[in-house]
Design a protein that fits this description.
Order of helices and strands: EHEEHHHEEEEHEEHEHEEEEHHEEEEH
Number of helices: 10
Strand order of the largest sheet: 9-8-5-4-10-1-11-12-2-13
Strand content: 15-25%
Largest sheet: 10 strands, mixed
């Protein structure tokens, strides 16, 4: 069909190693494993940022989330978002779940092209709990839903406060199914953005899933997300829409491991949410479209910002006239072609304004790094280490970023440092100082 239905399921803080099809042996995800077996399971797919809000901004706009500054509501308001672009092709669109891109005039989901919104303004953890910044202890002890007063909205109306977070995943699934049924009855192509709050801390799950997983409470939450995906697929099958619908299941960033049993797993990757290491932005991603996507595993380099150009090409929609940072992945998804993406500049989180790392082909450099966003006990921001010379890794040979190569590849490291500076400049950030050879010692040629 020329205007396929599109479903993007975005989990919050789901780690690369949290699903059975990505190697997890204690959390049962049979529905997602089946989706992966019948679709394209990606092993080299990135969120556009290692942090919630900018990752969603990149996904929705097709523009690098740090271009022009991360906190620029006016600039964000002026950009065309996915539902606006698809709406011009006749798509009905709904956001079910977390928005996190602002509620000021012009930024509400209904102002950005969505026909329907049911969910939360942002994350499910208020900035402070009982007057203190969240840390491991607050997530361990503040376990009642009333401890985390988050509002649930329908369109522009607040319908529940504090919301029943244990019912989020179930309610979102039911709303998503109603939207699919309504779109089918109206015979309109649809764009469904199902943005789960889970498994972001604090963790809550519906009673049927509580205590069922060998992965503890975190596993219970992920297994309910697996159930949700199964219900969406079942609905499509019953409506005869499965072969007319592209599904992407992914995460907004890596797991928040610093919160221990309340955080997920990055699997073989180093780092976590809020870092420039692979565990921050590299995420699970499953594309499914029976009859169009051949079941396989793909190691093609992709970023969620590329969905914008891809969906424009698939639907025949007209992208905005201003430059995008998005690349069309259609040939990757449908023909197994090499990815058009060759590089990307990574930041760590909203707390740090400087770029941290840069990927080009098989290689990645780190100009600065942090191991976590903040201390899980004190809540203090974690230190950032500057690297001069930058750290260099070959991700194809060793994805865990443990074997550092700058001494054995000095020319490559210097070239990538220059590319890092150029990429930062393109996004409006001042280029870092040129590479300086250390005063003591010398790298072999």
């Amino acid at each position: 069909m020329s205007t396929p239905n599109v479903i993007i399921v975005l989990c919050d803080d789901l780690g690369y190693g949290d699903l059975g099809c990505y190697g997890n042996e204690v959390i049962a995800t049979p529905k997602l494993d089946a989706l992966a077996a019948g679709g394209l399971r990606c092993t080299d797919f990135y969120a556009s940022a290692a942090w919630c809000m900018p990752s969603r901004k990149g996904l929705m706009t097709g523009v690098h989330p740090y271009r022009g500054g991360m906190d620029n509501p006016g600039l964000l308001r002026s950009r065309t978002m996915l539902p606006e672009m698809l709406g011009r092709r006749g798509y009905a669109s709904a956001l079910i779940g977390k928005w996190h891109l602002g509620m000021e005039p012009g930024l509400h989901p209904l102002d950005q092209g969505f026909d329907y919104f049911y969910g939360t303004r942002g994350s499910n953890d208020p900035i402070t709990v009982h007057g203190q910044r969240q840390n491991y202890e607050t997530f361990r002890t503040a376990r009642a839903e009333s401890d985390w007063p988050v509002a649930l909205l329908r369109n522009r109306d607040e319908i529940e406060h504090p919301a029943r977070q244990s019912l989020f995943t179930r309610r979102y699934t039911e709303e998503a199914i109603r939207f699919i049924d309504k779109s089918q009855a109206e015979q309109k192509p649809f764009f469904l953005y199902l943005a789960h709050n889970m498994p972001h801390v604090p963790l809550f799950t519906a009673p049927p899933f509580a205590g069922k997983s060998r992965g503890g409470l975190y596993g219970d939450v992920v297994e309910e997300l697996d159930w949700s995906m199964g219900e969406i697929v079942r609905c499509l099958d019953e409506q005869g829409l499965r072969e007319d619908t592209l599904i992407l299941f992914t995460s907004d960033n890596g797991p928040w491991c610093m919160f221990r049993e309340f955080g997920g797993s990055a699997g073989p990757l180093r780092g976590e949410k809020g870092t420039g290491w692979e565990g921050g932005p590299r995420v699970p991603a499953i594309f499914s479209w029976p009859g169009r996507i051949t079941p396989s595993v793909s190691d093609a380099f992709m970023v969620n910002v590329d969905l914008f150009a891809t969906l424009a090409a698939m639907s025949g929609a007209e992208p905005p006239a201003y430059p995008l940072d998005s690349l069309d992945l259609s040939e990757v998804l449908f023909a197994g072609a090499a990815s058009p993406r060759s590089s990307y500049l990574f930041f760590s989180s909203g707390h740090y304004r400087e770029p941290f790392s840069y990927r080009a082909g098989d290689y990645k450099i780190h100009v600065r790094s942090n191991d976590m966003l903040r201390d899980p006990i004190t809540g203090e921001d974690a230190p950032v280490t500057e690297h001069d010379p930058p750290l260099l890794y070959n991700l194809r040979q060793e994805v865990g970023e443990r074997r550092e190569l700058s001494e054995t590849h000095p020319d490559l490291m210097r070239r990538l440092r220059d590319e890092f500076d150029a990429a930062a400049g393109m996004l409006g950030y001042e280029a870092t100082a040129p590479y300086r050879k250390p005063a003591t010692g010398s790298a072999p040629g």
